[in-house]
């Protein structure tokens, strides 16, 4: 079977590897001209790591991942520890340690494993059509390619989604801006091996370890969309002025040229992921706020299910894609809603709700937070055997 994938991100490359391993002829196209992932890093919880293990990348991903043994919340203004606890129950329950990873490192690994000679960069898809036998993608340069199936992994502003759904779907602003990047390890912010988060007034500043003695930091600032500051680093410094010394130390360590500023938008959940021989996955199918850390993991789950179904079903590609849609849409949509609920709780859109959350953190043993994280993981299609622990 010939497969064309639009998008060389985590979802597209992982799907490409999964289908390639089944013996299919896969080519990936992307509009980018070089590997410049959006965002500094991502959270690979156990469900996402398991998919990468399944793709034969377990040793490589373990080498890229930061060792995150504990989690802590601190008062953003005083630096006081509100709660600190072990993340070992997550590993014990799921059978797999989670790993924060630098996005560029993971992206390069996936592209190399798929085969860079099979990835066509600088190819912007502008049109899609299909007949009973083939689906065809037309590119901005006038070229085209046809295949038995086309998979759109072309992100939040997906052109493939427009074709599948039959209309442009509006995205919703979630009410905050996220700043993120990579910095050298900084024990003034929090201990090595810990995911440390400072919270106050609906804002948060967090960091988790990644490979190479680095930290992935991310900071959320509620506010309107469309207000691009003259200096992202200056805006970040202003937003967290007067916060605890650990936060000030982190901001001082940031290279302004490497700082990312991202307005957080998502898509209402929807269940139309397939049109004949054309399907979508990843952000094209379930663009979500990052508040539950499952965006990349959900894309990896898509690739896992797609690969499993193509290895097991034989009634034709349209039938297999329809089964993929039924298997994934509800689960992915639920994670979008969980992300929204979490964003609402943590960003003081209702101040009383957020204050109650802060009070619940003080002196907590972490079991409720661990249950929440596990709730996002254990319903995954990778959750086989989770009842053992």
UniProtKB/TrEMBL annotation:
<keyword id="KW-0503">Monooxygenase</keyword>
<dbReference type="GO" id="GO:0004846">
    <property type="term" value="F:urate oxidase activity"/>
</dbReference>
<keyword id="KW-0520">NAD</keyword>
<dbReference type="GO" id="GO:0071949">
    <property type="term" value="F:FAD binding"/>
</dbReference>
<keyword id="KW-0560">Oxidoreductase</keyword>
<comment type="similarity">
    <text>Belongs to the FAD-dependent urate hydroxylase family.</text>
</comment>
<dbReference type="Pfam" id="PF01494">
    <property type="entry name" value="FAD_binding_3"/>
</dbReference>
<dbReference type="GO" id="GO:0006144">
    <property type="term" value="P:purine nucleobase metabolic process"/>
</dbReference>
<dbReference type="GO" id="GO:0102099">
    <property type="term" value="F:FAD-dependent urate hydroxylase activity"/>
</dbReference>
<dbReference type="GO" id="GO:0019628">
    <property type="term" value="P:urate catabolic process"/>
</dbReference>
<dbReference type="InterPro" id="IPR002938">
    <property type="entry name" value="FAD-bd"/>
</dbReference>
<dbReference type="InterPro" id="IPR036188">
    <property type="entry name" value="FAD/NAD-bd_sf"/>
</dbReference>
<keyword id="KW-0659">Purine metabolism</keyword>
<protein>
    <recommendedName>
        <fullName>FAD-dependent urate hydroxylase</fullName>
        <ecNumber>1.14.13.113</ecNumber>
    </recommendedName>
</protein>
<keyword id="KW-0274">FAD</keyword>
<keyword id="KW-0285">Flavoprotein</keyword>
<dbReference type="InterPro" id="IPR050493">
    <property type="entry name" value="FAD-dep_Monooxygenase_BioMet"/>
</dbReference>
<comment type="pathway">
    <text>Purine metabolism; urate degradation.</text>
</comment>
<dbReference type="InterPro" id="IPR047712">
    <property type="entry name" value="HpxO"/>
</dbReference>
